[in-house]
Amino acid sequence: MEREKTVVQVAGWCDCNIFKYDFRKENKGEYEEDIVKVQTYKNYLKVLNDLIYLGLGNFSVEKALQKAGYAYVYRFDELVDANTLF
Fold this sequence. Notes:
2 strands
């Protein structure tokens, strides 16, 4: 998904997922899994916000990570090589 989307667009997607998983965690019966998802999206959103702060918000996530020199980012529940996101 990130290949075609800008950093700002993916940040919005992460923000929505944080809200969704945080909101439903009490009612869906998957509390522990939803807590992990919330934290994971928060970690990823932090990286995206750093890219926006660097003025890279209108670049694709792939290009922005390259320009910022990020080698690793949090994606879902693990630290991954930024080059393997795509």
